[in-house]
Design goal:
This protein is of the alpha/beta class and 389 residues long. The chain is 46% helix and 16% strand. It contains 15 helices and 15 strands. The strands form 3 sheets. It has a 7-stranded parallel β-sheet with strand order 3-2-1-6-7-8-9. The longest helix is centred in the last third of the chain and has 20 residues, at 369-388. The protein is globular, with a radius of gyration of 22 Å.
Length: 389
């Protein structure tokens, strides 16, 4: 059944984040069989044009104002004619991906027209509030406002069991549905050419142990933990290179740290790679993906890596590790840089086992956005079926 679906997210490019990628792919696949609009904050015309070029999806830009921290925007849908035009009685599903201005707007409009509202929780917002404001009072105030939006929404979804636990810790007691993320990555037709390009550009042709991290270079990714592990590896005289693909506010600090720790000949910062086809080259060239974040509730990068049979090493029991089986389709290790160093050396020393684990990552961890959206649509249909009764 063809449906009219409204999606929203209270952040957009130039910010690069997991939720941006999620809603972009939701829209791409939902609009193949449905009417689907995506509401996001309005930035400048130049940034909006750049965002369209990067994402390939048309969005509805809603009036917004800058907030005092984090580079976020506060949307003002009630003052936006286009938002009010779209959020009308013809909508079948109101689905927001953030519990702020547009999330509240969707919940109230859905109630007004007697339609179901859904909110997907992606992020550890309490941690973000505290890190940005440095104030327990402001954090508590913002948490209260956020929880009000969650409570007024009809259906609450998350992206992992860890994200559900986060919600419970915040005090939410209602039902929660877990819809796991996917990836838009596919195998290229010219893998050897891509690998050769990376080898030439970063002088990796003769390197036998290449580690990879892809993501924002921010404190929540816990990269110094990995750098500390690399010091132990270097002390053992094990040859390696590590590629850091991405950019962010901590890049200069981390580059300085790398120099202080004597790792400047081992660690390469590539900067952000926006060309998704070229990004594939890094996954293809690497031997092991490392992702030390405890913050992420369901990172997309290990799914991208699995596309190319590249297994990931994660912190034991972190939410992102839910989709792997240790030593079978990925690796887990305790929160100790020395143990990580030992584990990395052990993993890289057995290339046959590493290839087997990578193959299992492709079989059991990889999940396409097309499959995700099929699950989403099935849930939409179930919700509408119950709603009519």
């Amino acid at each position: 059944m063809r449906k009219n679906i409204l999606l929203s997210l209270d952040a957009w490019y130039p910010q690069i984040s997991g939720p941006n990628v999620v809603v972009t792919n939701y829209k791409k696949y939902l609009e193949q069989n449905n009417e689907c609009k995506l509401l996001v904050p309005k930035y400048s015309k130049k940034l909006s044009a750049e965002a369209l070029e990067k994402t390939g999806v048309e969005v509805e830009h809603i009036k917004s104002v800058s907030v005092v921290f984090g580079g976020y925007r506060n949307t003002l849908p009630l003052l936006d004619k286009r938002a009010l035009e779209l959020a009308n009685e013809s909508v079948d599903i109101y689905h927001s991906h953030s519990p702020f201005g547009l999330g509240h707007f969707f919940a109230t409009q859905a109630e007004k027209y007697n339609k179901p509202s859904i909110l997907t929780m992606h992020t550890k917002y309490q941690d973000d509030f505290m890190r940005c404001t440095k104030s327990k009072v402001l954090t508590e105030f913002m948490m209260q406002r956020m929880m009000k939006v969650i409570d007024e929404t009809d259906y609450v979804w998350t992206v992992s069991d860890g994200a559900e636990k986060m919600l419970r810790d915040y005090g939410y007691t209602g039902d929660v549905t877990v819809i796991r993320n996917g990836t838009d990555m596919t195998l290229p037709q010219n893998p050897e050419q891509l690998i050769d390009r990376v080898n030439r550009e970063y002088n990796l042709t003769d390197e036998e142990n290449v580690l990879l991290f892809v993501g924002r270079i921010v404190c929540t990714k816990n990269l110094p933990f990995v750098f500390d592990a690399l010091r132990y590896i270097k002390q053992r005289r094990v040859p390696f290179k590590m590629l850091i693909v991405g950019d962010g506010e901590e890049r200069k600090n981390y580059q300085k740290l790398i120099e202080e720790w004597g790792l400047e000949n081992n660690v390469i910062f590539t900067g952000a790679i926006y060309d998704r086809e070229y990004l594939k080259a890094f996954y293809l060239r690497a031997d092991l993906f490392v992702f030390p974040s405890e913050y992420d509730t369901a990172s997309l990068c290990p799914l991208e890596a699995a596309t190319f049979s590249l297994p990931t090493l994660l912190l034991k029991d972190c939410p992102t590790a839910e989709t792997i089986k240790n030593d079978f389709s990925g690796y887990e290790e305790k929160d100790s840089s020395k143990l990580w160093a030992e584990r990395i050396v052990d993993i890289l020393s057995d290339k046959t086992k590493l290839k087997e684990v990578g193959s299992n990552a492709r079989k059991f961890v990889y999940r396409s956005w097309e499959d995700v959206v099929k699950e989403v649509e099935s849930n939409y249909d179930s919700i509408l079926e119950r709603w009519r009764w």
